[in-house]
Amino acid sequence: MPAQATLSTMTFRPALRPGAPLLRRDATSLQIGTSPGVVIADRPGLYALLRLIDGSRDVERLQAYVRSSIPELDVTVADLMRELHALGVVFDASRWSGPRRRGLDAEARHVDLGGHDPARLSARPAFRLAFWSDTTSRPIVEAARAILAQSGVHDLDSTDPHLLVIASCGEPDRSLFERPTLDALDHLPVVIDEDRVRIGPLVRPGRTPCVSCHDLHRADWDHAWSALLPQFGRQPRALTPPALSAVAVHTAALELAVEILSYCDGRPVRSVGRFLVVGPEHHQRSSWPLAFHHGCACDLLSVA
């Protein structure tokens, strides 16, 4: 919303740029922030006013305070806030907080600075998520759950989820995908593949390539793949644990959380029709696409 329209409503609650300190640069100028910071000319009463700009008061309340306590300020608060807003020094804190975004103020500030509407975060508290994981993949799931909880997603064990995450060490039992496919439930596989973690594809049944598409493509060039499929998810308890460092585990959890939050926020999800891979080192990334397979039923559904 343009600064003029925002301020005219008197609902504008100005706050200084998030994380940017108010500094005195010299006798005639102030500076807000240091990366690289914005320099503004000082004027009588300006420093005192800027110290009050914390998002808790709207323009009208600030003007009333100026009249009683900072009479030396020679400009209206509305005009001054309009000027500072245009410089990117002052932002509207009313866009950052609200009952539907409770606990998301920090992320709302980040979103607003990026030119996006913080209101999009309001979907997170109502978002329902469920996880299935085996013992070995649980550390990745738990780390991702912690990130999601801090990001405003709190319903992580729903019996009626919007998205199901299926995490396993080694290729999972393919029967795990039967029910979500039949129920048209979006689902996201996460596979610890020896010393790597593979995320995807995120499957929207009947609309995007699925795990069966992957199996059919694999069987096209690896003719023994169909014989391996029934053995997935039935590894012995003595299986040697994967060679994943703690940093790689948390990196994979972060990538997983990013995919889930993108899905929740309605942003593009990288793992739709694609595999994302982390490892062996935490900084190593790779990906490759997955197309519909002509022999898979989901390809027929997508046409229908």
Brief characterization of the structure:
The protein is of the alpha+beta class and 304 residues long.
What does this 3D model show about the protein?
It contains eleven helices and eleven strands. Strands 6-7-8-9-10-11 form a six-stranded mixed β-sheet, with helices on one face. Strands 2-3-4 form a three-stranded antiparallel β-sheet, with no helix packed on it. It is elongated. The chain has two domains: 3-95, Alpha-Beta Complex (Outer Surface Protein A, domain 3), CATH 3.90.930; 127-303, Rossmann fold (3-Layer(aba) Sandwich). It has helices at residues 3-8, 46-50, 59-69, 77-86, 105-113, 138-150, 178-182, 211-221, 225-228, 246-265, 297-303; strands at residues 14-16, 22-26, 29-32, 38-41, 90-92, 129-133, 163-169, 186-193, 196-199, 274-278, 285-289. Mean pLDDT is 89; it is low at 1-6. Helix 6 (138-150) packs across helix 10 (246-265). The chain is α+β, with helices and mostly antiparallel strands.
List keywords for this structure.
Rossmann fold; 33% helix; 304 residues; elongated; 11 helices; alpha+beta; 6-stranded mixed sheet
Lay out the secondary structure:
Blueprint: H1 3-8, E1 14-16, E2 22-26, E3 29-32, E4 38-41, H2 46-50, H3 59-69, H4 77-86, E5 90-92, H5 105-113, E6 129-133, H6 138-150, E7 163-169, H7 178-182, E8 186-193, E9 196-199, H8 211-221, H9 225-228, H10 246-265, E10 274-278, E11 285-289, H11 297-303
Helix pairs in contact: 6-10
